[in-house]
């Protein structure tokens, strides 16, 4: 089995996106720089950030000295900056903070009904034409909003990033994304730590000699998601990628599917 760090998803844009990466929400300052640098040294290639996270400078510093072409950098534009010119300006600021000439993936962080999606996608198309962005997508979009974005865009919508974990299985969105070959990224794949105490995941983990966290990540990968768990230490960075050489059985997948808990851990729309 190919290492999880080497597995990729072929995007509609033609570029390949790693299926495993590092989320950086709530990572800041020197801690963020240190964690991102350690992750890259371990072989992480996908680093996920956002305008709203306030850590693009630190991620840029952590990237220095590494081959940029070997990394996949995702950032997201705030929902306050979705008009055409505001989006273009926001992207340029992100590029400056990160110290890079392009983003591999640029996402609308949250939808904003006050700004027509056509204006937003016009800005995204311009950024692709200028080679400032290689692929574009959305975040926190349900199926209805995904349909609207696809209809409004002259460039392919390559990715939807949503809260996705065993306590929020998001059954409709994964099905839609599979049908339309849209990569689905799972943020908060450990439900902000809630799944670590889950008895079903813990029991399955004992069978494999793995933690509940690793079972949750493997479940998401088996369901076709790209996963971006955050980590605050070298040990957690290593634990999160210890997913090679074992798989969940069909029965174990069903056990997790049947947990039956519906719990959001991200309730606020950040603007």
Task: Summarize the structure in words.
The chain has 271 residues and is α/β, with parallel strands linked by helices. Helix 1 links the parallel strand 3 and strand 4. 46% of the residues are buried. It has helices at residues 29-42, 56-63, 84-98, 117-129, 143-152, 172-179, 199-208, 212-222, 234-240, 250-257; strands at 8-10, 16-18, 21-23, 46-48, 72-77, 103-108, 133-139, 157-163, 183-187, 226-227. It has a domain at 16-191: TIM Barrel (Alpha-Beta Barrel). Strands 3-4-5-6-7-8-9-10 form an eight-stranded parallel beta sheet, with helices on one face. It is 38% helix and 17% strand. The chain contains ten helices and ten strands. Helix 2 packs across helix 3 (84-98) and helix 7 (199-208) crosses helix 8 (212-222).
